[in-house]
Amino acid sequence: MKGDRVEIVIDAGGTPRTYEVIATKAGRRVEVTTGRGVVEVSEVTRNGTPVRTARFMQSRVLALVEHPIDASEPA
Q: Which residues are CB-neighbours of 48 under 8 A, at least 6 positions away?
């Protein structure tokens, strides 16, 4: 849903960096997948087509925080 967002904190050589992937339009959502040492965060449409994707090495990820939108709140 519009407003879903995922915050990713990574270790960038001694200093942490924060990235955000946000569902920008109505009907889009943010999905997180992990596999083979890679964390992938994607904004996808209703039919599952990825709009944008961020990939991070799993060993560098310090925190991954999902912020789902409350369905009762107006977007």
A: none
pLDDT band at 72 (very low <50, low <70, confident <90, very high): low
List, in sequence order, every residue forming a beta bridge with 72; answer none if it has no partner. Answer: none
Give dist(CA 73, CA 31) in Å, integer: 21
Question: Residue 51's pLDDT is what?
Answer: 93
- Using a 10 angstrom Cβ sphere, with 0-12 exposed, 13-18 middle and 19 or more buried, the burial of residue 9 is middle
CB atoms within 10 A of CB 30: 20
Q: Buried (b) or exposed (e) across 38-74, using 16+ Cβ within 10 A?
A: ebebbbbeeeeeeeeeeebeeebeeebeeeeeeeeee
How many C-beta neighbours within 10 Å does residue 6 have? 22
